[in-house]
Structures
1.
Amino acid sequence: MKMTSLDRILLFLTGILAAYQVAVGVNGLGEGPIIAYTVGFGVLLVAGLLLIILGFEALDSPVVVIVSTVIPLAIALGLVWEHLASFRTSYLVFVIVGFLAVTLTRSIPISGKIPTLVLAVVHGIAGLTIFLLPSILAANGTMKPAFALVGLGGALIGLAGLLLSFLKAGKPIVPRETILKILPSLLLLMTICFVAGFKFG
Amino acid sequence: MTAQSSITNHQLPITKKIALYLPLTKPSQSGLLLATGVAGYMSAHTPPSLPLLLVMCASLFLAIGGSTILNMWYDHDIDAKMRRTQKRPNASGQLTRAEIFRGGMIASVLGIGWAVAIHPLYGFVVFLGWFFDVVVYTLWLKRRTCWSIVWGGISGAMPILAGRVLAVGEVEIIGLLLAASVLFWIPTHTLTFSIKFFDDYNAAGVPTFPSTYGFETTRAIIALSSIIAAASIGTASVMIGVQAGILRLLIVLSSGLLLLSFATVFRPSERVNFSLFKYASLYMLAAMILLSI
């Protein structure tokens, strides 16, 4: 499916917002969250640029599954590091193990459902963390209500990640054309939620 | 050139004729080099003078455009043999060789003269860029050795140094680092290009790294030069004292460049090569904007 000019504009705006988040949006945070968010939004920025350059063909690369895992893992780690100090080490271990597990199951031919299961578990936990943690913090008044937008971004990134990952796994939840049609808008909306949530939350 | 096209050429109104010179300046390449010049000037973070910036851009564009037109004048036979360049006005005969030479010389003299008038040292650096491009790269080495791109690279590194010199009044280490970043970025751009258009360059008999040393060595050189380019930009940024956020963004963009460079070595493909070629241009443009902030 050919990428339209509108798709490219949406991806460019996504890249600009991700660049803003890396350069400005994380100022004032601790070293741990800054590194984690820089990795997450940095990968989003570079991935967006490559999508603009190569078109949707870029999604045929086997690296896509790994890249689409890095973004939620890094953002989830940043949130936990920032707001759940007692879980920092255990979550860091989960992120490292999860990333390695996804990379290994995508690099070595493994038959059966293990690769899909690993992917679903890692994405699921990271996605739930990004969705639930900001939503709870906004609901109990620890953070401003706008911080819930980060949770909304988390729901959208979980959706985008799962759509892409299952597409790559050869078991698309919805047809490929539909995924490609909504992907640029989904990525932009997700990034807007993140940037706005972090800025105003 | 045929008699018919010669007659058509003479009948062209002057405005259309001037418009034919535009593709001869390679607008995207000249624009990118101009952007490096502006970034070099802005990187000093001195109170910017808009009139000075404007005359710098004009003089630099004329000098860069002039040297590129002269390159086209000399390489008309090569351009005529390569599919990619056959439609350029120098290869298709829309402009005569004499017209192209005159246009290139006028732009060059105006650009360099203006640059010297603005600031002698700035003018000297602009002249060096022109000299390396026209005399060393185009006239002397391009048809003899694939190493000519190093001299072409030095020429391409001069606009950013010139901009920096105009702002600080001297050639200093930051200016040289910025120049090195462009110098080592250029192989990432040109070598991926020579891989992509390998057959074209071979048909025209232009020696390139892929035809001289093979694809594997060329890819290794691309990766190495990307590392040096990213390191030079990073070091220059730290010495300039850019904000932490800008530095983070530069690191992210540099990481993308390095990953793609390594991908060309370890997982070579047409797609990766094309990505690196395009990404390298975006990277340089973005880096220049960030250094100017």
2.
Amino acid sequence: MRYEDVLKTLAPCGLNCGKCQAYSEGDIRKHASELKRLLGSFDLYAERFSGFLPVFKNYPGFKELLNQFSGANCKGCRQGDCKYPNCGVATCYKQKGVDFCFQCGEFPCDRTNFDPDLSKRWLAMNRRMKEAGVEAYFEETKDQPRYRDVTDLPARDRCH
Amino acid sequence: MSEEFDKKLAAVCGLFCPACSIFIGTKEDRARLNVIAQRVQRPVEELRCNGCRSEQLCYYCESNCKMAKCAVAKGLDFCGACPEYPCKDLKAFQAEMPHRIELWKSQERIRETGYEKWYTEMIEHYSCPTCRTLNSAYDIACRKCGATPSCPYVRLHQDEIIQHLSKRK
């Protein structure tokens, strides 16, 4: 993928908006919407099925989550819609005139406001982008799930 | 010396009690405490607070805070010393309000330099550059002399603080 296209989904911190559950154009939103469509009026069936398969008693809760996922409407970080509480990167990268943190002369700085876990990932993601290039980084991480317990992984594998 | 850095006022979570609006209200500004009491719909007596490790805690820190009780159970002084740091309770707490933005930085500082040094840095961080009054994160202008921004913390996080205040009822 070309650099300009990567910029559409890769946030300046290195996280991929395209894989985020809140992103309107994300795969999670698309698959959730499709599943919702395929299930149609499953409510009535779930109730009936729950008589012999108790797991279907949980369908209302599942449906609520499915509605949440399929209603995702975030436009993405570069559209000014960062969902991370008090993210320091979302405004800073514009002021510095860079596309990604690693391109800034002050990287790594302490202005991200990220919690220590995300801080580690932020470092790993940006170091990898610097080393391999943005396009290559995008390719090698695009099929990894966004949501992983990365705290025990080696630095290189914390990227997503 | 005990006046210079009082451990009672260095909260387990990394917050600095002297820069809390409720603490300021308890110590020197009855009117401020009344305003807060009205906003949160609680009797003013339940708000009185002498700091995280004191005997008199405001209702919020008394009943909602998970960190202080957890630290006592684990025999730790600050969250940053815990093998589970940063746990999901602290992450959720940090993300809720803009006066908690620098919790991670504070925990790191306390670990690196000790709470005494951090404490003196916090006094600087929340003091009005003009008149030296200690302000809370929600005092956009200095509560004594009116200088804006009221302190370095507010200068750094003004946007988030104003956004938060505008959503307040």
